[in-house]
Specification:
Blueprint lengths: L1 H11 L32 E2 L2 E2 L3 H4 L2 H12 L4 E4 L17 E8 H4 L1 H19 L9 E2 L2 E2 L2 H10 L3 H6 L3 H7 L7 H25 L42 E2 L24 H7 L30 E3 L6 E3 L18 H5 L6 E8 H17 L10 H12 L7 E9 H4 L46 E5 L4 E5 L6 E9 L2 E6 L4 H11 L1 H6 L13 H6 L5 E5 L4 E4 L4 E6 L3 E8 L5 H14 L7 H11 L3 H28 L4 E4 L21 E5 L5 E2 L15 E5 L3 H15 L1 H15 L5 H12 L6 H25 L4 H9 L7 H14 L4 H24 L6 H14 L4 H22 L6 H14 L6 H24 L6 H10 L7 H28 L10 H12 L8 H22 L8 H19 L17 H4 L22 H12 L15 H5 L18 E3 L6 E3 L7 H6 L23 H13 L6 H23 L9 H13 L5 H14 L23 H25 L18 H6 L15 E4 L5 E4 L12 E4 L5 E5 L35
Parallel strand pairs: 1-16, 2-3, 20-23
Antiparallel strand pairs: 3-17, 4-10, 4-11, 5-6, 7-10, 8-9, 11-12, 12-19, 13-18, 14-17, 14-19, 15-16, 15-18, 21-22, 21-23, 24-25, 26-27, 28-29
């Protein structure tokens, strides 16, 4: 044991390359559960295959027990685990190393091995005689089967009878020769027999006695030329594919080695010449006899003397000595070759497998794959994929071929305790879920359902799994399991393993067939079937009536073998499997039979069967175990006590001793038959041997009084143990007897008593039939009681009752209660609920009679029916009378409620509510009042459907709509729908009237007579509120869109960045523009003939005959609504003569007469308004300006020394709040607005603005058309330019011409280089002027937007302005009250003067009378691009009225400049 441990440790230290699990198959292909017709070799049927569920797979032994009745008929079966079964392969493939066994395929087949053994005997004999057989005789180009030839001759009486009877040709046909030349066939067979076989048979006849089955012609002498001397070949002429130098052989077929610690004996096959001779030679061949001679001395085995040692010949087989002259026939000299005695020559050693080399899994895989590939390439399989059927056929071909020896290796019976298990174990893998799985082969033998859990020691191979590493053709021969136990094999991975199984029912037939097929092997080894070294073709077994089935095991599949079932098989290639045994209770009888058979053949058992039974009885006291153990223990007790009594009776003097402790196994094993005798042994003082009762005389030669009968348990103890087990097993029987007695004595048992009995049965931890029947009966009775109780205590619920009646559910009926009572009588049990049910039935029958009397009355009383109804509902039963009472009470109650609400009122909603109430309460549909209400409801619903059909149409049909309204007046209809129809009708009528009126006025040539835009908007809103298509709707929507577009375009003339399209914004803008035009032209005395803002604007008044007079001549004014001079006069007359209440001609509130009343001294600045806020005075023109208009702040005004206005200094850019449209753009907007079919106040207002602006423009043009404009007119020129710049209408041409005149007359008004210089040191360089101007333009736009928002928030009803300084009013009335004194230019030279305005702000003015030098002329370009003059550069001499050289500019940035080729306005 120590050596094996050290060896294992040494092996484990050597690491090999790990096995690549991807190179082996770990998952089997899907199985086809449908059995197909047999296609296997020999026509074998497939063994059954099972697919357990996950729950069944968790209890594997119970599942195997469930399939046993079917599966044991096949002997073997296959179990495929459920999906998800993927245990980890826990073996360390780097450390795992194992030794193989060499298998020669043709030596394992029984008949082939017998043939080979006989050929080996012939080979040894002829070589020993000095005439070795160099070549086996051949016939038809194939070797003659000498063994069959010998058997055929012996079967026909021997050589002499065959020769005399001329039966050699017959023998040839028996050997499957079909040559036509019978003479040549006979001579060849006779010659082969005489030369090779006959000399050996004569030799055997001279040893002791001649063989009885082979008459030998002693006269016949073998010829000397029967063999040819020369090289010694193998007598089998085999072509082995692999060789081994090892000479040691291992009897791997002996499974008793599981408990034998010594090394097994090596055996070799031998074949006796005849049965009679073999009987003598079969018992331990060449065993050294016990004699008084010194065993160390060489003694002749024949004469038993030690004389003539020089003539002593030692056998190379058994190493025993023989005198040469004692041999038969005597030898004259010592043979030079190997010499074997007659015993060794005939018998030889028992057959076994030689030990192979040591491998790792990776190295063995290489060997397996190489062998399989090379072997099948010779048979045409080049891709390495060989069909399973082809492998199976090739295997049996090689097994049955005596002349072709194929040698393979098999790693079989590898102990998992030494090498490890392929399954995860709890010790090494505690966290692996498969380590505790019941289907793990490490756990299965010791599951509670297996008797092995009661064995105290581990039995390798049975309780500890063994491992098997296979290669192609490696074989496990026919055998059944030790002790006839179950076995289970699991393939972890690899190629297929084919199994053959024989059920236990055909086991004896199989053994007989084996004995008939190879009697020689059984004569040599009577226990041959206990070995695992012999194969026999299934074809031979099936031919002899043996049932053989087959299956193919693949990775992840289990194979189970059943007790006493023989099985064998082979591997298709490299694979890894694991197997173990288990023993459920049903195995016991077969296990006992196996023990008896082992005793007959003196085979070493694996464990003590009696000890297992006793241990189970002591350890497991459950009723389930006692049920099956009782019979086994009684059988054991009977056998044991009978044997004890027999021994004591036969040997009265023998002593009897009882021991309290167990002995080692070797001390309780019979020395003669090897059987375990756990309960009692016969021992003697002379030795440590023990024997069983049957072999007392074989123990020793001592007297019987020196011998002792040693008992493990006394008789009484065994009897008590059997009694306890019997009592435990009888517990269910005791209860059953009690149950039967009660049932026999009580005709109708009470349910209480049955429940008590069932409670007692539930305390018995065992399932038995009577308790199951009672449990089923009590369950039915309990269900009956529960149903009856619910029926009797169930409370009535009106809503549920109505629901049940509407759904057709009858509920509890009197018939049902009577049926339940009948059911209780059939079940035959008694309980209080039965009596209660009887009383309830009687009460219900009485109620039924009273209800029937009330229902039969012609007029029903509501109070009486209601009381009966409540009584019936209280009984909670479904009865026709109760339903009728329900209907009557419900109908009468509803009629009462309906009458109270006023059922005759023609109200649709009330009718619907009453019908709903009737449906909810279950009023009978045949009720007359309800039927009338339903009819009215349906009439209202029909009207509603027709009304909605009309209302939902795209176009409204007034006639149909009127018809629908009229039809709904006399019936109850939905108020909302009627209201909707009437509203729609009224709207359509109103629309038609409105549309007709608007269409009539829209094309009126007089603008004031056209409909207002507000009327159009109201009409469009009205059309939108009508959900249908209307005539003229699209026209009015289009006109409204045109107005919106015109409003938007006109508004954007003043605010290009604003997309407002609303009217109020444009109203404010035009109001501001009108105020601006009036302010800028208020001091102009227009001619009466010129168009004024109080007169209608005509096309003639807007268009000037000379395009050179202004920009308006370049803007075409279109529209048919503009009138001529004659039309203007007519319209004026019509306006004057218009009746009171008619719309007057649109005009502005001011005219030229009002302008005459304005004092020119009271208006200032560019905006031409009165004084307001802080004012500054220009030092050139002495005009006062609002600080806000010229963008001068208080801080700048305080720090200035002088100020020049933008009119005098043309380089100053005037920043504006709003965009200024041109006069042409305003005229075009007016023309477009005048052409629209609907009027608005904005068009006449815009016309008045355009007319006044046109008058002002014409006046300026007339002034500019003078022949000469000199310096004397400079004030007039600046005045016009001041008004043009202050006007919110951009008169581009007039502005450019006026600026050119100023520049021409006063060249200093534009500084040199187009840049106004500053006294500030931080003045920017000229290169930044462009960017600063762009910034200023953005500032102007932003400021304009802010001012517009401010105006909107702070609009005033009057025309007064607001002082931006302090917010005080400074309106027109204030201007009239204050008298302003004109400043004398001579006052305060060069001194800034301030004055308080009416707003309390200071004003600043400066004077400058110094002259400026003459400046060079710089050309000035107008906006049109034409040169309009030039200005002089500042000169050294003074210029009249202006001194620009010494002028003190204000301390602020004057970034005024002019580019060449651009207008100053740009």
């Amino acid at each position: 044991m120590m050596k094996s441990k050290l060896k294992a440790k040494h092996i484990s230290g050597q690491r090999a390359p790990a096995l690549d699990m991807a190179s082996v198959s770990t998952k089997a292909p899907p199985e086809n559960p449908v059995s197909n017709p047999p296609t296997r070799i020999f026509g074998l049927q497939d063994a059954p295959c099972y697919y357990p569920t996950e729950k069944e797979f968790m209890e594997p032994l119970r599942f195997i027990e469930s399939i046993r009745p079917e599966a044991e008929k096949a002997g073997i079966c296959k179990i495929i685990p459920p999906e998800g079964w993927k245990p980890t392969f826990a073996l360390d493939t780097e450390l795992f190393r194992f030794k193989t066994r060499i298998q020669k395929l043709n030596s394992m087949e029984g008949e082939t091995r017998t043939n080979i053994n006989y050929l080996d005997q012939l080979y040894k004999f002829h070589r020993q005689q000095g005439h070795p057989v160099l070549k086996i005789p051949q016939l038809d180009k194939r070797p003659i089967d000498l063994f069959r030839l010998k058997k055929e001759v012996a079967a026909r009486g021997g050589y002499q009878k065959v020769t005399a009877g001329k039966k050699w040709a017959e023998i040839g046909r028996g050997l499957d020769y079909t040559r036509k030349q019978c003479t040549s066939l006979s001579n060849a067979l006779k010659s082969a027999y005489v030369k090779v076989i006959l000399p050996y048979e004569i030799y055997l006849s001279k040893q002791a006695r001649p063989p009885s089955d082979t008459p030998v012609d002693t006269k016949a002498e073998p010829s000397d030329d029967s063999v040819t001397p020369g090289k010694q070949p193998s007598p089998t002429a085999s072509t082995s594919t692999s060789t081994s130098s090892s000479t040691s052989k291992v009897a791997v077929g002996i499974r008793k080695s599981k408990r034998i610690k010594k090394d097994p004996v090596s055996y070799a096959d031998s074949e006796p010449s005849s049965p009679s001779y073999s009987e003598r030679m079969s018992s331990e061949p060449c065993e050294k006899k016990e004699a008084s001679v010194d065993p160390d001395m060489d003694v002749c085995e024949i004469c038993q003397t030690e004389n003539d040692l020089e003539m002593m010949l030692i056998c190379d087989g058994c190493e025993l000595g023989y005198h040469t002259y004692c041999l038969t026939p005597p030898l004259t000299q010592i043979p030079r070759t190997d010499w074997y005695c007659a015993k060794c020559l005939v018998a030889g050693d028992d057959f076994g497998f030689e030990e192979g080399e040591e491998y790792s899994l990776s190295s063995f895989q290489q060997k397996c794959n190489s062998f399989k590939t090379q072997w099948f390439e010779k048979h045409g399989f080049k891709d390495g994929k060989v069909p399973e059927d082809a492998v199976e056929r090739e295997f049996w071909k090689l097994v049955e071929d005596a002349y072709e020896t194929v040698q393979v290796e098999y790693g079989a019976d590898l102990h998992s305790t030494q090498h490890g298990s392929g399954f995860p174990s709890l010790e090494k893998h505690p966290n692996d879920k498969y380590s505790t799985h019941p289907s793990n082969l490490n756990n299965m033998p010791v599951l509670p359902e297996s008797l092995f859990c009661h064995i105290k020691s581990d039995i390798s191979g049975m309780m500890i799994p063994w491992l098997y590493v296979g290669m192609c053709f490696s074989t496990f021969c026919w055998h059944n399991e030790d002790h006839y136990t179950y076995s289970i094999n699991y393939m972890h991975w690899g190629d297929t393993k084919t199994w053959y199984g024989i059920p236990a029912s055909d086991a004896l037939k199989f053994e007989d067939t084996m004995k008939q097929a190879v009697p020689e092997l059984f004569e040599q080894q009577p226990d041959l079937l206990f070995q695992l070294v012999t194969m026999l073709s299934p074809e031979r077994l099936v031919a002899n009536g043996v049932k053989v089935l087959a299956l193919d095991q693949r990775p992840g599949q289990f194979v189970v073998t059943f007790p006493q079932a023989y099985h064998a098989g082979f591997n298709h290639g490299f694979n890894f499997a694991e197997a173990v045994n288990f023993a459920p209770p049903d195995w016991c009888q077969l296990g006992l039979e196996c023990v008896k058979r082992y005793k007959e053949h003196k085979k070493q058992p694996v464990f003590s069967h009696d000890e297992l039974i006793i241990t189970t009885a002591l350890d497991d006291t459950s009723i389930a175990t006692a049920q099956w153990l009782q019979g086994e223990l009684d059988n054991l007790l009977e056998r044991e006590l009978s044997c004890r009594q027999s021994v004591q009776k036969q040997y009265p003097e023998i002593a009897v001793v009882t021991e309290e402790t167990d002995r080692p196994e070797e001390e309780v094993q019979c020395h003669h038959c090897n059987a375990y005798i756990y309960l009692s042994q016969v021992v003697c003082k002379c030795s440590s041997r023990v024997v069983c009762y049957e072999h007392v005389d074989e123990l020793c030669s001592c007297e019987i009084k020196d011998k002792t009968l040693r008992l493990r348990y006394s008789d009484d103890y065994l009897k008590d143990l059997a009694k306890k087990v019997s009592e435990t097993a009888s517990i269910p029987g005791t209860w059953t007897d009690k149950f039967r007695k009660i049932m026999m004595e009580t005709r109708v048992p009470s349910l209480k008593m049955l429940r008590s009995l069932l409670s007692e049965a539930d305390k018995i931890p065992f399932m038995f039939r009577e308790a199951a029947h009672l449990r089923e009966f009590v369950a039915k009775a309990n269900d009956w009681v529960e149903a009856a109780t619910k029926l009797m205590i169930r409370k009535h619920h009106q809503g549920r009752r109505v629901l049940e009646r509407t759904q057709g559910s009858a509920g509890k009926r009197l018939e049902d209660l009577q049926g339940m009572l009948d059911q209780a009588e059939r079940l035959r049990f008694d309980c209080p609920e039965i009596k209660q049910l009887q009383e309830s039935i009687e009460t219900m029958q009485e109620f039924q009679m009273e209800a029937r009397r009330a229902l039969d009355r012609p007029v029903h009383n509501l109070q009486e029916c209601r009381e009966l109804q409540e009584a019936g509902l209280g009984m909670n039963i479904s009865m026709e009378e109760i339903d009728q009472l329900d209907t009557i009470v419900t109908d009468l109650s509803w009629i009462e409620r309906a009458t109270t609400k006023g059922v005759h009122v023609n109200d649709y909603h009330l009718i619907c509510s009453l019908v709903t109430d009737a449906e909810r309460t279950g009023v009978s549909p045949s009720n007359t009042l309800l039927m009338d209400l339903i009819r009215k409801q349906r009439a209202g619903q029909d009207w509603e459907a027709s009304a909605l059909t009309v209302l939902n149409k795209n176009s409204v049909d007034l006639d149909r709509l009127q018809a629908v309204i009229d039809s709904g007046k006399d019936i109850a209809v939905p108020r909302t729908v009627m209201s909707k129809a009437e509203t729609l009708y009224n709207k359509v009528i109103e629309w038609e009237k409105t549309a007709a009126h608007l269409l009539k006025k829209a094309n009126d040539p007089l603008y004031s007579e056209r409909p207002n835009i507000s009327e159009l908007k109201r009409a469009v809103r009205l059309a939108d509120s009508i959900p249908s298509q209307l005539e003229h709707k699209e026209y009015f929507e289009g006109q409204a869109k045109k107005f919106d577009d015109w409003f938007s375009r006109t508004y954007q003339l003043f605010n290009p960045g604003d997309v407002k399209r609303v009217g109020p914004a444009l109203d404010e803008t035009l109001e501001d523009l009108q105020a601006n035009v009036e302010a800028c032209t208020v001091d102009e005395n227009f001619d009466k003939s010129a168009p004024s803002m109080s007169r209608p604007v005509t096309e003639k008044s807007l268009l000037r005959p000379n395009a050179a007079n202004g920009e308006a001549g370049r803007v075409p004014i279109e529209g048919p609504t503009l009138t001529t001079e004659t039309e203007d006069a007519d319209q004026s007359n019509e306006s004057r003569n218009a009746p009171e209440g008619s719309e007057p001609q649109t005009s502005l509130p001011t005219d030229s007469t009002a302008a005459m009343d304005v004092d020119e001294d009271q208006i200032y600045c560019l905006c031409r308004t009165a004084e307001s806020g802080m004012m500054v005075e220009c030092d050139e023109c002495h005009e006062w300006y609002h600080g806000t208009c010229v963008r001068v702040t208080k801080r700048e005004a305080s720090s200035k020394s002088n100020y020049i206005c933008p009119v005098c200094n043309l380089s100053i850019v005037i920043r504006r709040d709003n965009h200024r449209p041109t006069l042409g753009q305003l005229a075009a907007a007016y023309t477009e607005g005048h052409s629209l079919h609907f009027s608005t106040v904005n068009v006449p207002a815009l016309g008045g603005i355009v007319a006044r602006a046109t008058q002002f423009m014409e006046k300026v043009d007339r002034f500019l058309q003078r022949e000469s404009i000199t310096l004397a007119n400079i004030k007039q020129v600046k005045g016009f330019l001041r008004k043009v710049e202050g006007l919110d209408i951009d008169l581009v041409r007039e502005r450019d011409v006026l600026r050119n005149h100023i520049l021409r007359l006063i060249p200093s008004s534009m500084p040199a280089g187009g840049v106004q210089f500053s006294n500030f040191p931080s003045a920017p360089p000229p290169s930044t002027i462009n960017s600063q101007l762009s910034s200023r333009a953005s500032e102007r736009i932003h400021a304009a937007r802010e001012q517009a928002e401010l105006k909107k928030r702070r609009r005033k009803s009057s025309k007064d302005s607001i002082d931006l300084g302090n917010g005080a009013l400074a309106g027109t009335e204030e201007k009239k009250r204050r008298v302003y004194k004109k400043r004398d230019p001579s006052d305060g030279e060069n001194k800034p003067r301030r004055r308080k305005s009416s707003g309390g702000q200071s004003s600043v003015s400066t004077d400058s009378n110094t002259s400026t030098p003459t400046q060079p002329q710089i050309p000035f370009v107008s906006a049109s691009g034409a040169s309009v003059g030039s200005r002089a550069e500042p000169a050294a001499g003074p210029v009249t009225g202006i001194d620009s050289a010494n002028r003190n500019y204000p301390k602020r940035h004057h970034l005024a400049f002019i580019q060449r080729g651009l207008s100053p306005a740009t």
